[in-house]
Specification:
By secondary structure, this protein is an all-alpha fold. It contains 7 helices and 2 strands; from the N terminus they run αααββαααα. The chain is about 65% helix and about 0% strand. Helix 4 runs antiparallel to helix 5, helix 5 runs antiparallel to helix 6 and helix 6 packs antiparallel against helix 7. The longest helix is centred in the C-terminal third of the chain and has 25 residues.
């Protein structure tokens, strides 16, 4: 089995009910931490600017902008909520990757969950776990070859895509 097959297998087969209790507990802590940072971040000027920008450019009313209100495309909602999540730099972090996975993962799955009919709490939390795991591992690989300090734009996108794909129910052939 190739390395990419291992990652794909993990994404597709992760089931909330089968995760160890300590992983479930930590996932809930990460969710609350990231959500708190996002809610507080929506009070910042950058979140206000992004809110107006997104409402102006992303016209589809399919996903919610938290706190400030409004509906926009799933992409737009993930963008403005993501800016808010990282605006105060108080969101969760993982020192070995020098970054904040929650700000990259939570906004994406909030939007994906809204556009995916029947999304359950366990599905949402499994996607969160998948996103964190894939993002962190992607950056550990990146930092093994480069000491770039803030590279969350690269590994965060990989984790967000993995989490959204999990929640959207993409089949292996779609990856």
């Amino acid at each position: 089995m190739q390395q990419n097959d291992v990652a794909l297998d993990f994404i597709l087969k992760t089931d909330w009910a089968r995760l160890p209790g300590d992983v479930q507990h930590q996932a809930k802590r990460c969710l609350l931490d990231s959500l708190g940072a996002m809610l507080a971040g929506h009070q910042t000027p950058v979140a206000g600017l992004m809110h107006d920008f997104v409402l102006d450019l992303f016209k589809h009313a399919e996903a919610s902008i938290l706190v400030q209100g409004g509906k926009t495309s799933a992409t737009g909602a993930a963008l403005v909520n993501g800016f808010a999540a990282n605006a105060l730099d108080i969101d969760d972090g993982y020192r070995p990757i020098k970054g904040h996975p929650g700000a990259c993962i939570l906004p994406v799955i909030l939007a994906a969950g809204e556009i995916t009919p029947g999304t359950s709490g366990p599905d949402f939390l499994a996607a969160l776990v998948v996103g964190y795991e894939i993002a962190i591992r992607a950056d550990l690989i990146r930092h093994a070859t480069s000491t770039t300090y803030h590279s969350s734009g690269s590994w965060g996108a990989i984790g967000g895509a993995a989490a959204a794909g999990k929640l959207l129910g993409l089949a292996a052939k779609r990856w």
